[in-house]
From TrEMBL, chain A:
Topology with respect to the bilayer: Multi-pass membrane protein
Domain ABC transmembrane type-1: 71-291
Protein name per the record: Sugar ABC transporter permease
Originating species: Paenibacillus montaniterrae
Any single Gene Ontology cellular-component annotation: plasma membrane
Keywords: Cell membrane, Membrane, Transmembrane, Transmembrane helix, Transport
Family in the record: Belongs to the binding-protein-dependent transport system permease family.
Membrane as UniProt keyword: yes
NAD in keyword set: no
Segments forming a coiled coil: none
Compartment list: Cell membrane
Residues passing through the membrane, by range: 12-33, 82-100, 106-129, 150-171, 207-228, 249-266, 272-294
InterPro entries: MetI-like, MetI-like_sf, UgpAE/MalFG_permease
Automatic annotation (TrEMBL), chain B:
Species this chain originates from: Paenibacillus montaniterrae
Domain of life of the native organism: Bacteria
UniProt-listed CDD domains: TM_PBP2
Protein location: Cell membrane
Protein name as annotated: Sugar ABC transporter permease
Amino acid sequence: MKSKSRSKLNSQLYAMLLPNLILFISLTVYPIVWSLRYMLFDYDGIRSASFVGLDNFVRLFTRDDVYWSSLLNTFEYAAGKLVLIIPLALILAMILNIPFKGNTLVQAIVFSPTIMSSAVMALMFYLLLNVYNGDLNRLLLSIGIIQEPINWLGTSLAMVSVILVAVWGGVGNYMVYFLSGLQTIPKDIYESAELDGATYWPRLFKITLPMLGPVLRIVLMLAILAAFQDIQSIMVMTEGGPLGETQVVFLYLYQLFFPISTTSAIQPQIGYGAAASVVTGIILGIITAIYLFVSKKLDDIF
Amino acid sequence: MKKTATRLLIIIFLAVMIIFTVYPVLYTILGSFKTNLELQGGGKFFPSEWHFSNYVDAFQKAQFLKFTWNSLYLSGLTMLFSLITSSMAAYVIARHNFTGKKVLLAAYLSVMFVALGPITLFPQYMLMNDLGLTGNLLGLALVLTGGQASNIFLTIGFIKTVPKELDESAIMDGAGYFKIYMSLILPLIRPILGVVALFSFRLAWNDYITSLVFSISNQSIKTLTVAVVGLRYSANAAAELHIMTAGASIAIIPIIIVYIFANRQFINGLTAGAVKG
C-alpha cells in the first residue's frame, strides 16, 4: 500500500522533469550526435547524403585556407576584445565599488547595451560608421579630431570597428561580474591595511587583484568563449568582409550551413560544415583546457 | 590636491564611458524622426524637423505591425515555456534524488562551457520541420527555450534558500509533489521567476540568427529584428534609412522601457547563480 503511493509520487517527479529533459536532449544533445554522424557524409541538404569517410577532414586540413584564416581572425578578434573589455570593465567596477551619488544610475547606463538586440544595434552602427554620411565621421570632423572621413568598415579598420562594437555591447556584463566579485572582499582587510599605512596602489596589487583572482579566472573563461561565439553583429555589419578581413570562424561555419547572403549564392555544405564544426569544437576545447591548466598553475604560484 | 585630480580623472572616465554607451542609442532614436533625405545627407545629430510619420510608414507600408506582433507572441511563448520547464526541473533537481541526477547536472554544466556555435541550428531546424512545427512560431519558441542550463542553475540556487521543513510539513499533510511545487515553492521563488522571465523574454525578443533561419522559408513568421536587419539587404535600402531607424527604435524602445523599471533584476540576475568564486 505504502510503496504504491510512493511510486506514484515518483512518476509525478519524472513528469515534472520530462519537459525540460526532452528539450535538452532534442535541442542540445541530439545536434551534437547529429554532427558526429554527418561529418562523415557529403550532404547538401537536398540530395540524399553519401558516405565519404574522412574526406571532409582531408579537405579541411589540406585545402581550405579560408577556414584557417577565419580561425586566425577569430583569435585576433578575441584578443582585441579581451584586451579592451577586461581592463575597462575592471576599472569601471573598481570605481563603482565606491559609493557615490548616481552610482546605480551609471551602472544601469553602462549595462544597458546588453539588453538590446546586438543585430539591430549592429545595423545602426553600420549606418553610424558609414564613410560619407555616417554620424561618427561628421562628429569627429566637426570637432576637428580628424581632417578627412575615415573608412571605419574598410579593409584596414573593419576589425577594429567590430571589436569596438563588441566592447560597447559587452563591457557592462563584465563590469557587473567584477563588481559582485569586489563586493565579496571583506572590508576589514582594507581597514587593517590602511592602519598599516598602505596607500592605494599597494592595496590594489596586494589585496584587490589577488582577492579577485578566482572571479577573474571564471570571467576570463566566459569572455574567451563569448568572443568566439558572437557573430550576430559581425554578420550584420560586415558579413565577414571586406575581403574576409572580419571573417570569424563561427560565421564561416554558419555560411556553410546557410549560404544565403547578398554576395554569395552557393550550395549548402552540410556534411563539410559538420566536420569543420566538430574540429572547431575540439580546438576550442583544447584552448579551454590549456587556459584552465595555466590559470590553475598561476593560482598555485601566487 | 592629488585627491581632486584623481576625482577629476574618474569623472572624465565615467563621462566618456557614458557618452560611448548612450551615443549609438540616441543616434537611433533621433534618427527615427529624421527624413530619409536628412539621414542620407548625414545632417546634424538632432533632427531638423521631427517627423513622426516614419513610424506610420513602418507600421503601415513596411508591415511592422505584423513583425512586432510576431516578436511579442514569440517572446511571450518562449517566456512561458522557459518558466514552466525550468522551474519544474529545478524543483525536482533541488529537492529530490533520482538515478542519473549527477550525470544530468554534469551535462547541463558542460554545455555551458562548450561552444557549439551555428552547428546546432541546422539539425534543430530539420527536427522542428519534421515535427511540423515550422509553419508557425511554435517551433522557433521551443528552440529558443532550449535546455536552459543557466536558468535551471539560477532557480536551483534560489530554491535551496527555501527551508526544507516547509516541504516536509506539507508532505506530512498529505500533499503530492506537484501540489508542493505549485502552491508552496512557486510563490516563494517569485523573485527568481521574475529574472528567468526577463532573461527569456529578452533572449527571444533580441534573437536574430535562429529567427532568421526559421523564417527563411516562411516569411509570415518573421520577427522584428529579422525584418529590421533585412532592410539592409533590400533592393532599395538607401531609400529606406528612415524605416531602418524607425524599425530599430520599435525593436529597442520596448525593452528599454522594461529595463528602466527592472534594471536591478537584469543586473543582479546576472550574478545571482553564476560567479561565486
